Amino acid sequence: MAHHMSALKRNRQSIKRTARNKGVKTGIRSMVKKLEQALATAKPEELQALVKKIVSTIDRAYTKGVLKRSSSSRKISQVVRKAAAAKK
Predict the structure, then answer these.
(1) pTM for this model (two decimals)
(2) All domains of the chain, ordered by start, with CATH?
(3) pLDDT, tens digit (0-9, with 9 covering 90-100), for 57-71
(4) What is the DSSP string of 25-82?
């Protein structure tokens, strides 16, 4: 356990940030699962709107520092490829 005031504060901040980041990552994963479910049944317009929302969320997570650049790029690429494969 930390003894210095600055270390105690840093620990509190770390706990808050970890919880916030975990929520964002969980949200992204659940959105991708919704996309996978919608691939079979959704209309192209709905699918495109969902992809746009997911990409926006991933970009926001990168901007806020929740995801790193390569992780966010990879996730966006996977989402776009899945949606493009469903259009064919």
Answers:
(1) 0.85
(2) 5-87 (1.20.58.110)
(3) 999 999 999 999 999
(4) HHHHHHHHHHHHHHHHH--HHHHHHHHHHHHHHHHHHHHHTSS-HHHHHHHHHHHHHH
